[in-house]
Amino acid sequence: MNIILLGPPGAGKGTQARRLVDERGMIQLSTGDMLREARTSGTPMGKQVAAVMDRGELVTDEIVIGLIAEKLDGDKAGGFIFDGFPRTLKQADALGQLLDGRGEKLDVVIEMQVDDEALVDRVSGRSTCGSCGEVYHDTTKPIPADGKCSVCGGTEFKRRADDNAESLKTRLFEYYKQTSPLIGYYYAKGHLRTVDGMGEIDAVAAEIKAVLG
Ligand code: AP5
């Protein structure tokens, strides 16, 4: 099964994708994670995209389509979860072509609906484990009291450079301008399902489970 998690910054796409990886053996393809990895390892592409990401703008379609195309060549296990991709109509068309070319299809697009005010809170309280990437939140999913990641025991936690009010404003603007048209695009194709992303993490996971069966 191949699915897209579609939603604004901080909607909980990464959080739910990690659960699906654990529960269903799916492969998470997060273009945001891939780009951050390229930055950390200092590749020429990583250097090229750094400022764009910090401002909250979108990286070029060519770069992210190239990243996804590379990953689709690998093991597909229980299917792919596209997290943060596609984000433009051009990326959506490209994904369709890439899957067609491999004799595969897209099964479901899950739109996660979350109010803008909640997004600000989620993004400003987020931290991630520096070792395994597990996502935490200052109030809704705090780092365990012993200071160790509950998944891998790591003790270093990071905050993202783009998780600030100014960048979030731009990220939301880009979402509504460039990504929200995908809701109609996938609705027309019969792929779209909507979940209420405002509930607690377990409640959202249950809704997604009900959609996927
Ligand atoms: P990316 O990394 O994809 O960021 P994003 O889409 O802005 O999404 P986030 O990772 O911020 O949020 P999320 O929905 O995964 O939420 P999370 O689960 O972490 O992209 C970053 C940048 O890279 C972009 O701005 C762009 O520059 C570039 N980029 C990436 N892909 C691109 C593409 N395809 N094209 C062009 N450019 C691209 O949760 C957030 C917080 O909320 C956490 O603290 C979590 O614990 C908490 N939380 C989660 N669920 C709940 C819940 N139900 N209740 C309460 N708290 C919750």
Give the ligands present. Answer: BIS(adenosine)-5'-pentaphosphate
Order of helices and strands: EHEHHHEHEHEEEHHEH
Gross morphology is globular
Gyration radius (Cα, Å) is 16 Å
Q: List how many beta strands DSSP finds.
A: 8
Give an overview in words:
The protein contains nine helices and eight strands. The strands form two sheets. Strands 2-3-1-4-8 form a five-stranded parallel sheet, with helices on both faces. A three-stranded antiparallel sheet has the order 6-5-7. It is of the alpha/beta class and 213 residues long. The longest helix is centred in the C-terminal third of the chain and has 15 residues, at 165-179. Helices cover 48% and strands 15% of the residues. Bound molecules: BIS(adenosine)-5'-pentaphosphate. BIS(adenosine)-5'-pentaphosphate is lined by residues 7, 9-15, 31-32, 35, 52-53, 56-59, 64, 84-85, 87, 91, 122-123, 125-126, 135-137, 140-141, 162, 171, 199-201, 204.
List the helices and strands and how they pair.
Blueprint: E1 3-6, H1 13-24, E2 27-30, H2 31-40, H3 44-55, H4 61-72, E3 80-83, H5 89-101, E4 108-113, H6 116-124, E5 126-129, E6 135-137, E7 157-158, H7 165-179, H8 181-188, E8 192-196, H9 201-212
Parallel strand pairs: 1-3, 1-4, 2-3, 4-8
Antiparallel strand pairs: 5-6, 5-7
Helix pairs in contact: 2-3, 4-5
